[in-house]
Every structure is written in C-alpha cells, then in structure tokens.
Amino acid sequence: MRPAHLVPAGVVLVALGAIAAAAQLATPAPAGKAQVATRQVAVTAAARACPPVPGGGSGQVAFIAGSPAVSAGPATGTSTGTGPAASQAQLTPLPLAGTQLQIPNPISATQSGLLSMLTTPATQSASKKTSTALQAWSVTATGTMAQAMEAEETTSAGLASVRCGEPGSDLWFVGPGQQGGAAQIQLDLMNIDALPASVYVNIITDAGQVQADGDTGITVPPHQTVTEALSSLAGNASVVAIEVRTSIGRVAADVSESSHGSGATASWLPSTAPPSTRLLIPGVPPSAGTAGLYLVDPGTTSARISVSAITPQGRHQPLGPQTIDMPGESAYYVPLSPLGGTATLELTSNVPVAAGVLVPGSGLGAFTTATAPITEQAVVAGNTTSSGLGVTVVLSAPAGQARVRLTEVGETGVAASPGVTSSQIVTVQSGHTLTVPATPPKGAKHGSAFAIVITPLAGSGPLYAARVETQGQNTVASIVPAVSALTTIMLPAVRDSYAAISP
C-alpha cells in the first residue's frame, strides 16, 4: 500500500497565513464594508442546434439575431459589431456520425435585427450511389449578432415546427408512448462542441422505469449527430418521459413522434422545463378534440399534484378540488376538459415533476411544455399567415399585472422598410390570460414569414407566453412556448478565496 503523506497542522496554518498575508498585500483594504455586486455584460456568443429534417432533404431555418434595440439600422453584411471583433452568424452542418457525406458550406445570416429565412440544402452521400442523408445543423453567432438570437426549423411556408435548442447536460421530454398514439419515436442527439459527449438516456413510462441498456453511454462525436429509435422501449406505454443526460460534454436533443409509421408527418416534442414543484405550461388553445396533460415523477417519492388554469376569465380548477396522485418513478396521462378559452396551466406538487400538453391538431397534434418566465424578451422567429393560417400570441400573468410590447419584424428583403415595422403595447391583468392576434408588419409581402418579439416592460409581474398557429376555426397547426432570448447576462461577483493544500 502506498503510504499516505501527512502535512503537520502547523505547516498548514503557516501556509494559510502566508496566503492571507499575500492577499492583503495584493488587494487594498476597503474603507468600509466591502460591497461586491454582480456585473451585467452583453451576450457575445450564442449557439443552438436544429435537428435533421424528417425523411432527409432540404429544409428551412427561420433565424433572427441582434434585436432591433441593439441594431442601429440594417447591416450590409454579417459584420455588425462596433468593437474590434466583427459580428457574424452562420449555420454549419452536423452530419450523422459514421457517414461519408458531401458536406455543404456554412450558411451565413446577413442582417442584424431582421428575420432571415435560410434554406439548408439536402446532404448528398459521398458514395458512388448518390442519395440524400439526414443531417442536423448548428447555429452560432458572435458579437452583437448573438444578442436575442433565435432559430427555428420551419415548413416551406415559414411556420415554425421546432425550436432549435441550446445544448445542455440534462434535458427532459414528456409525451405519448406507442399505446398513446406515437407509433414512431425518434431521438436526435447533436454535439456542436469540439469534444465528444457521452449520453445516457433514461426512460420512464406509465409502467415505471425502463431498462434501456442499449441507450447508455452513447458517444456523440464532435460536430456530429446521433439518431436513436426509441419506439420499442415505449411499445406498451401510453406515456413516455425521456431524460437525456450527459456524463461528459453536452448535447442538444430533439424528439419527434409520428402516429402512423415512418411515412407519417412527424410532430416535434419540445423539451420541457426541468422537474420542479411548480410548473407553468403556456399556450393551451381550444381544439376539436381532447387535449392531454402528460406528467412524470422521476423521484422515488409519490407525487400529489394540483392543477389550475389561468384563462381570459381568471383562474379555475379544471379537475375540481381533486389532486393527481402518482407513484415515484412513473409517468401519467390526464385528459383535459375545455379550459374556457386559451389558457396556461399551473401545476404545484409536493415533489419535483415534469410536464407537457398535447393539443389535437394536424398529425399527432401540437405540443406545449413548461417554461420559465420571460426575461428581457422572447422571440418566435417563424410565423406566417399564408394558406389561411392565423397567428395569436398567448400572454399569461400568474402573479401581478404585466405590460407587454409585441413587435412584428419583417423578413429580410421583403419588408418595405427594414427593422421594426409594427409594435403595440398590451396589458395582462394579474391571474389572467390574454390572447392577441398577430399580423405581418406593414410593408411586408402578403403571406411572407415574420418574427414576433415579446418584451415585458419595466415593473411587470412574471410573464409566460406562447405563439399559437391555427388552420381554420379549431385545427391547431403549431404551438411554440416562448423562451427568453437574452441580450445581456449577469456575471456573479468574484471574491478572494483560499485554496486548500493537499498532500
């Protein structure tokens, strides 16, 4: 056995005393009590990842970066920064791991503060037998172009189908399993970093924990994508909850579900807020069918969950006084009766839970999930009123009145005048939900795509929001829960500290 090397206590004290003396000499003592505050700095780098287009082929990304408040005016190229480092934004391919492809060149966004609709070309195999292949895309921005950045994968009409998500180390998804109508479930793992990531997939269903031995320790190489089929793991389940966790590195992840096999239209299951004892799920509109609430209790303690709906008429309990009781390490489904208009659900629980809602519509339906309150502003890039689609913004103020500025931003090269072309201020009463119609900005070509910026004004209470697109009266085409798009971040204070001395 290797002998342990012990340091006498006196030596440690002497060393600590020397460090303290050095710190005092290096840092002048303040005249009074030290005031150490956080520091607000501008966002100078941002990254997202867009999943492969289902079935392969070309796609389209709605991209906006550098908010109108940040930009002094339209830019003539990608360089919009005022400092020594030029601002830029671009899409870069993330090919499937292990494939030999003809990689297309990066795609650059060209305007700061305006919506760009960027076409991602189909990827061709490098083999003699040319064919298209699945491929994801990373979205990166630096300088002022990183501020308030948002990107979404869209349909050909410019309608957002899935938000391009941030990479992380612990991501959650909750929705139907195969017995709940999801015949195909696919997980896309995207690594935008220069180091490999090691991913573990944890699955919980209404039958309990699933042993997914084949989905542990998945290696996602740098700047590549790994796709996993999860249908068989949720084959007998009505509800499936998926946790994507990394032990090394980080990944962005997306889950798509389809109701009738691989040829059916896929619905994207957005990631939900991490498990918490309080969740708010914005943007649950009326529909022709019954919406469903999907829940997961990932811990070992049983959950007791209360549900309230924040509606245009105020709060009410859609399930009455009853609570939802579910055992630990299980998932659960609750059908929702009509909520009295478009609503936000508020869930409170004795233990952390995660949740999402499926609203019947085109394909499997449209999903909305729990989100955090909006800080600074939120941006939904891909919106359109073409082909009879209607756009509404759902705003909820669970605690305190909120005053909100809604801004429509035109597409690059389409709006008659660049920058912000339409804006309004609305008030949401405390404990209520307000639904506001959105239209393309003045000067935009009929049917063109446009972005929506949602900005809580100073003094507003917590604000939750979502963008809902409908086809006709009752068919829900798309729901995008609004997520903060920051222009600044707060850096924690740095204090003098002592380092431990180890043998």
Explain this structure.
The protein is mostly beta strands and 503 residues long. It has a domain at 275-361: TM1070-like (Hypothetical Protein Tm1070, Chain: A, Sandwich). The chain contains 1 helix and 38 strands. The longest helix is centred in the N-terminal third of the chain and has 18 residues, at 9-26. 48% of the residues are buried. Mean pLDDT is 83; it is low at 1-33 and 69-85.
SSE layout and pairing:
Elements lengths: L8 H18 L12 E4 L2 E6 L8 E6 L23 E8 L5 E2 L4 E2 L7 E5 L2 E3 L6 E2 L1 E8 L7 E5 L5 E4 L6 E7 L7 E8 L5 E9 L2 E3 L7 E3 L3 E6 L9 E10 L3 E7 L8 E3 L6 E9 L6 E7 L5 E9 L2 E3 L7 E3 L3 E7 L6 E17 L6 E4 L8 E6 L5 E9 L4 E9 L9 E9 L3 E7 L11 E7 L7 E8 L3 E7 L6 E4 L12
Antiparallel strand pairs: 1-38, 2-10, 3-7, 3-11, 4-6, 4-10, 5-8, 8-9, 11-12, 13-19, 14-18, 14-20, 15-16, 15-17, 15-19, 20-21, 22-28, 23-27, 23-28, 24-25, 24-26, 24-28, 28-29, 30-35, 31-34, 31-36, 32-33, 32-35, 36-37
